Amino acid sequence: MRQRIYLFIFMILLSALVVGCSTKTNYETDGPFIIFSHSPAGPDEYRNMFARNYSITENGKLTLYTESEDRIKIGDDAPVYEAQLQKSEVEKLKQLIEKNKFWNLQEDVSDDNSVDGSFLSITVNLTDQSKTVGGLNPNDSKFTEIADYIFNLIDVEDYRQWEEEIMNYIFKMNPE
Predict the structure, then answer these.
(1) How many helices and strands, by DSSP H and E, does the chain display?
(2) pTM for the full predicted model
(3) What is the pLDDT of residues 112-134, one digit of tens each?
(4) 41: helix, strand or coil
């Protein structure tokens, strides 16, 4: 009788393990499944303190943009950088999210000793939930591995060109 009980418990645990390990993450398909944002912190001209947002959709569309903030006006005609990622790049990003157990990360991964630098955040959208993780100069290696990968999806020259265009736009839209 004991053997049957142990066997029954073993089978239930084995079934739970198989189901748990084979669960597929259902990333958002109607909008971006991930948004990475970084913005400077510390003393600087307020017009330089805008967020750089990277959104990536399931089909590989990467968009780099900024949005209006408390002191900075941004219109619908603001410069936006768009690129088409390879399917392998999107899959690698998803693998990094899974490998680094994004859903288990603390929401605030700030370095407590920082007073300036950059605010970074990552929001992952699933079909039924979202989670945002970020902070000032994050010091969590799992978080930074994902953030670095996203940041490096855009060629340095393309990024510099977009940043120059958006800064000129911001200074024009927000004169002193």
Answers:
(1) 4, 6
(2) 0.84
(3) 887 778 999 999 999 999 999 99
(4) strand
